[in-house]
Amino acid sequence: MNQAGSDHPSQTRWGLKTKLILSMLVVGIVPLIVGLGMAFWQGSREIRDVSGESFKALAMEAARKLDLLVAEEITQTARMANDPAIISELEHRRDTPQNHRGAAVETSDFEAKWAAGEPNAVRSIMENPLSTLLREYYTGIHNVPGQVQPPIVRASTKMLFLTDIHGMVVAAIGEKPELYHTQTPWWQGAYHKAIGRLFIEDLHFDKRINSYVFTISVPVMDQLRYEVVGVLHRVIDAKEFFSPATHTIRFGKTGHVMLIDSNGLVISCPILPTGVPLSDPTLIPLVTPLQPGWVQASSDGHGGHSTSVIGFAPLLETSRATNGSIDDGSWHTFVWQASEEIFAPIQHLFTWVTIFGVVGLLLLAALGYIAAGRIVTPVRQLMQAAQAIGRGELKTPIIIRSGDELEELAEEFNRMNEQLNAAFAGLTHQVESKTREVQELRQSTDQILDAVSTPILLIDANEQVQYANRAARETLDLHHNRSLPMPLFDLLPLDPTEQHSLRQAIGTGEVQASQQIKPMEREVILRDPLVPMNERPLTDHRPEIHLGSRLYQYQAFRLPAGPGHQSVIGLVLRDTTDESRLHEQLIQAEKSSSLGVLTAGIGHELNNPLFGIIGLGEAIAEEHSLERAKAHARDIVAHGQRMAAIIRDFSGMASKEGENQAIPVSLEDAMDRALALVEATSPTKGVIVTKLYNGGIHVLARPDQLQQALANLMTNAVQAMSGTGTLTLTTALSNRTAVATITDSGPGIPRQHLSKIFDPFFTTKRQGEGSGLGLTVARRIIRKFGGELRIESDEGQGTTCVVTLPAVTAAEGERSWAPTVSQSEPQSAHSSS
Amino acid sequence: MGSNRFTIRAAIGSLVILGGLFSLPLAKESFGADGITPEKVADYVHAVLEANRTVYTTIIVNRLQQKGILAATEQWEQDHTLPLPAQFLQQTGRLVAESGRGIRYRLIGLSPIYSRNAPATQFERQALEALQRHPERPVTGIVLSGKKRYFQAIYADRAVSPACVSCHNSHPLSPKQDFKLNDVMGAIAITIPLE
């Protein structure tokens, strides 16, 4: 543990071993403490309840016993009071008048003597026959045979005397009493308005006897039991009287029974002296109800302040007579045992369980230490092995023989280590072979690149040439003695304009896309040799550079960059010097050939009527009939008109280029005018015209030219349908673009003709019907106004001409063409119906 | 000693009987024609006592017990219950005595549960014995206590309720346990001083 701690101070403060031991201890301690607490609580409760119940029972038993003891004493006294000799003597004293003077003097005289203790006076009472009778009773002579008064009880009677109806002592034994007693509470209580009542006087200190006493006063009734004639009074030493009964009841070391009165004064207790009050006055109401019971109090009444269990019970019979009635005082037994003693068993149990618990915990800790050691040691071995594997240093296999998962884990570690080693070995081999492959690949790539006759350069982002193939080296006069990399523009001596365009080409990825579009545009423009080309400075945008006398077309491509590498740009230089020369020649050839076609077309077109005119002219020359000559002349006029038309067509195509003053034109209006023109010149009887106009579309164009272009298209459509079919005209506006379509239901255009339909003089019509210039002219006009013409046709399905033109706002068109629009609307409505 | 006491008792007893026999016409004379004789007074008192106790027994105690509200038990003070009918009479007798009017009454019997209710004098004992035979008429007489003279009327007291019989037959201190309903169980002794 310490060793490991020195290795890894941060881990071992709460290392696995400590945690295991601690968790075992916690698992042991928590139930132990909970169990101990619950057992202690429950045990205390049960012991308290059981003790309380048994204390209550004991208190009741003791109360009954003490009650009997007092009742016995009362019975004894009552038997004396019922003695006929005593009754008749007292009746006599009652009936003897006392109020004459002589008697009074005699009485006060006697009182003085009695108080002085004059032997004659004392003897006259304490040794008179009644006193003798009392003594006889007292010593048990008059007892019923078999009933023996206990000597202790007899000894506890300190005074016993009889008073007459006037409260004067008639007879006495024991200590000498006072002579008159009418004013004492016991006398008045026992006399009780001459009815008589048993009166037990509560505990008090008597100075004559020098002890705590209680008294029993029994009224002596006359022989009719009509009224009281005297009182028999007994003074009893409380401790002496009760201690034989109470002191014998002891249990445990401190358990005992005591007798208290309702004021909390101790009458008899083995521990407390008689006459002292209970130490805790709050205890008195708890233990002096008139029913037996037990209570858990916060003090014990003996000066202790620990929680106490106290049993109590009233002396019912005795209490009935205490101070005259039960309401004026009562006596109670009080059973108590020191709480340490009551709860001693549970405390012993607690102590022992605690000791066993501690021993158990120590065992648990020891076992935990061993168990944790058995678990942790292999784990630590594994950890060190894992570290060794991580460093690649584990040579010897881990050996753990614990026979559990850890052993399996160690085996797995060994297996993993072997597999890792094997994998590493295989990997090294693979890396070598792959490296060889890469080298071969590079060599072959170099060879391929060298074999290519086109110069290829690889440039990094800093315009440094990283690689040049053989062709590049030769072309750029790069020898092996000049080491790569080198700046690009050191290698390519270019003027600043070309440098700029080349930088753009290699700097942005969009270069390639623009390069792809440009040749197409150029090609499209070159298709029509008759259109005078706008000599745009194309060379500026062409990816071309001049190196010496030669022209190179370059193409840049971006090589994907590997991780951690800058992207490399490839630059292919293609020598287009010869190619562009050839291209120019081709253009020239095409132009001449088109001129030839044009010349042939015009010649052909003009030849036919011309030959007709020549023939007709010859015929007129030889004709005699004027009528026929006139007819021939008319034919000549017709042929001439036709030729004029051809020339007009041609001139319309070639000459009106300059006049392009475009103004807003209503597209639908132009469509309607073109349709009217066509209907006037071509046979359209069997053609149904359907118009689907959007309305209010205006485009920027010259009205007559737009009208002619649309008329050309419609003428084609009507002619294609051979005079019968459906012609559909639509206009639409989408995204500021006006779209007009002209659709026929004719036979369509054969596929092989689709690519030629825009060629000048290409026609499918019979000789004399079409010049082959209609579509060419229409397309040129539309393009001039920024639009486009597209022909869509499926063979046998008809043909659709789609004209798109930039639209202008309706307000603009409205302003300049309002009358025309209002004029055209009824016409279009008529046509569509 | 014992013989001595016996002679004293016998002397007192004979005195009482003699007093009872001879003082009756004297007592009548002393009240005169307009006065009420002690017999009448005792009769009245007895009638009231009987009536009160009967009402208490039949209307109060029986009903409360039948309803299960409150029972009559011997330890009625301690149990906070109703006194038994006999105790009711004794309790009223105590109150009457405490009032100091002079007239007193109590229950006596030849087989009392408590010895304090045994006959106190020979006159009472003989009266009880006479009432066993002729319960319908009270025994009256003038008795002496010392020089004091008292009129006593002793009325038979029957077991008027089953409760009386069952209680006396089952009480552990009862010396006679074969009472039957309507038996003469004892007597009410009414004592009136004659001075």
Question: Can you give a write-up of this model?
Answer:
The complex is a heterodimer of chains A (833) and B (195). With 833 residues, chain A is α+β, with helices and mostly antiparallel strands. Chain A folds into six domains: 47-63 and 249-343, Beta-Lactamase (2-Layer Sandwich); 81-241, PAS domain (Beta-Lactamase), CATH 3.30.450.20; 344-442, no CATH class; 452-574, Beta-Lactamase (2-Layer Sandwich); 587-643; 659-832, Histidine kinase-like ATPase, C-terminal domain (Heat Shock Protein 90). Chain A is built from 27 helices and 24 strands. In chain A, the strands form four sheets. In chain A, strands 18, 19, 20, 21, 22, 23 and 24 form a seven-stranded mixed beta sheet that branches. In chain A, strands 6, 7, 8, 9, 10 and 11 form a six-stranded antiparallel beta sheet that branches. In chain A, a hairpin with a 3-residue loop joins strand 23 (788-794) and strand 24. In chain A, helix 14 runs parallel beside helix 15, helix 23 packs across helix 24 (703-720) and helix 24 (703-720) packs antiparallel against helix 26 (774-784). The longest helix of chain A has 66 residues, at 16-81. Chain A is elongated. Mean pLDDT of chain A is 80; it is low at 1-12, 508-540 and 812-833. With 195 residues, chain B is α+β, with helices and mostly antiparallel strands. Chain B has one domain (2-193): Beta-Lactamase. Helices cover 50% and strands 17% of the residues of chain B. Chain B has six helices and four strands. Chain B has helices at residues 2-31, 38-66, 76-79, 85-98, 122-133, 162-170; strands at residues 104-108, 139-145, 148-158, 184-193. A four-stranded antiparallel beta sheet of chain B has the order 1-4-3-2, with helices on both faces. The two termini of chain B are 35 Å apart. The model of chain B is unreliable at 1-31 (pLDDT under 50). The chains are: A alpha+beta (833), B alpha+beta (195).
